[in-house]
Specification:
The protein is an alpha/beta fold. The protein has helices at about 1-10, 20, 55-65, 85-95, 115-130, 185-190, 210-220, 260-270, 285-290, 295-305, 320-330, 345, 370-380, and strands spanning about 40, 80, 105-110, 135-140, 145-150, 160-165, 175, 180-185, 195-200, 200-210, 240-245, 250-255, 275-280, 310-315, 330-335, 355-360. The protein has 13 helices and 16 strands. The strands form four sheets. The chain has a six-stranded mixed β-sheet with strand order 1-4-5-6-3-2. A five-stranded parallel β-sheet has the order 14-13-12-15-16. α4 packs across α7. It binds [cytidine-5'-phosphate] glycerylphosphoric acid ester (C2G). [cytidine-5'-phosphate] glycerylphosphoric acid ester (C2G) binds near residues 252 and 265.
Length: about 375
Amino acid sequence: MGADISAAAKLPSLPYSIPDRLFLGTGPELIGGNTGRIFMRQHRNFIKLAYPASVLRESLRRAAKLLNDPERFGGWQPPWWIGVGTALGMVREQNFLPNESDIDVRIGLHYQSNQQACADALKVVRCLYRHDFLPIREVYFDGRPMQVAFYDQTNDHALLDVYFFYSGVSEGHYVNVNTATLRRKPAAFVENRRAVSWPGYQNLKVNVPWPVEDYLAWRFGPEWRIPKRGNELGPIDNACLEPVPRVSVLTYGTWDLLHAGHHNLLQRAAEMGDHLVVGVVSDELCAIKGKSPLQNEQQRAAPLRDLPFVKEVFIQRNLDQKEFDIERFGISHLVVGDDWLNHPRFEQVRGYRGVQLHYLPRTPGISSTQLRAAQQAGQAS
Ligand code: C2G
């Protein structure tokens, strides 16, 4: 165990026995750029056993009692819900799934910074830890906690698996990135979550994403009502799982009347990594910058979302949000056309969290200004 950790990432060595002091409070900051974006810390061997429903229900009851009590979190009510297999079992089987090996609890956090993310998650982890839920595994992405698995020490070491989902990263979604997959959960499921009683146990109140059947269709595909074993699950059943971004690239623009010059730049930017994120200057910011695009921000964003190599599109609302964007998207490469060569707005973030800055040659002979003039001339005639 000791050897692996020290070799892996030059991170502080982890005394095995006292997880909470080191736990989460010292989320692994990005080390010299974005390599090794997934970080896992294992405190106990992770054994997947099948538990009787009564054991799982007892640990769910204990966890729900804690999570439903804002007093335990200084007045903050953690937005929590049961997810994936636990929700599927509750709806389809009116119980836990047969041979179920864990309880899937999800916590919704609003992303403001990695430090804040660690602080928010720590409130939940500490509360559970104080009530004999022992942390056995932590997973981070870009220094942000994504999963903490616990053993219920009062109840046969039943496995409570907590995933943290973040709003404020991907527009309209909550995002979780774990060892193997990225999940972008439509925000509506979380924001409309509903408190329901576990079947047959009036007082065991759990929250479920709502409408829960739409959520199960999103998570398990259209065939969610058909019981399937693990190896029978195919792409249609796991369509919502995306590959973990390894190298993320960021670029900004007005993108008015999207044209070949824009397309060339975006394509070259996408080739620098496996996850291209595009910022669209908001209408308000265009006005501040003295620009008057013909299209509004959503009309300019829409064609970008249709480009297969564009993974994320967001509206840029202020000029100095680049550092925040580099952190929340875990950016390795920042790209812009060479009409911005050495511009302070880009130079000031060169190297921020290891980001590399690239000026790419513009495509000659085409511009939105030109197209706007042509359109206006066309309308005038
Ligand atoms: N571009 C290009 N070739 C063209 C036209 C544009 O390579 N013929 C590039 C620009 O250099 C820019 C991107 O396409 O990197 C988007 O261009 P615009 O929509 O004109 O964006 P701009 O107003 O330059 O905004 O903070 C930076 C700005 O947001 C970039």
